[in-house]
Amino acid sequence: MWDYTEKVKDHFFNPRNVGVIEDPAGVGEVGSLACGDALKLMFKLDRGGRISEAKFQTFGCGSAIAAASALTEMIIGKTLEEAEKITNNDIADYLGGLPEQKMHCSVMGREALEAAIENYRTGRRTGRRLEGAVICTCFGVTDQEIRRVIKENDLRTVEQVTNYCKAGGGCQGCHPDIAAIIREIQGDKAQIDGAELTLKASRDPNKPLTNLMRIQLINRVLDQQIRPALQADGGDLELIDVIGDRVVVSFRGMCAQCQAAEFTMAEVVQARLREFVSEELVVEEQKP
Hints:
The protein contains eleven helices and eight strands.
């Protein structure tokens, strides 16, 4: 059980400024329902150019509600130049702190504010700007976003990066890339488990795989990159057979009844096996 401050609880049970502003000056929308967190932030300006009203709508946990509520209080009365200096740590500090596992809620608030200010200045409503190359395909997090949270919050582990921006929180296939970015920025201060880098390093693209090696590598990818995330949600995956480039799997537990099983098979299981084993692999599900 996470330890929430009284101020977090207050903003969760009694959120400020929930709702919709008619004809807002700026609107920012970030996150997605598929990822479990979504936030829409709106504001109006007075004649002096200060934020006179701010409201939000959110789909997310208690920390997401509290962070959005706190943010609206923080920006009312400020100019846009003053508001855009607010960091995710400022939001967390305003609430008396957030559990590290919930820091991504403060980051989402900052991103929504940036998107709303950009909407006011440019008229574009593009949501969160995806600058750079996408590293985490599960949550659509780019290398630039990962670099930013690492630098702003002095992050040193893959787990911390996941806590702050969700990158690596799905299938975990991007852990080696996240670890490499941490080492690039933090150098000797990086605290990277050697296992986070082993999968990519273990596959020599110039060395042909025997069928036995292929099956062993497939099992390794499933065990390290896919099954832990499925098991965390009460599901599982079993390797049934490997026939040439066909990989036959069967979902177990909650995954067997999940409506997103087809997406998981194609966009997670098949994508990871193609990345780490062979681009020719095709994953098929064996129905019960």
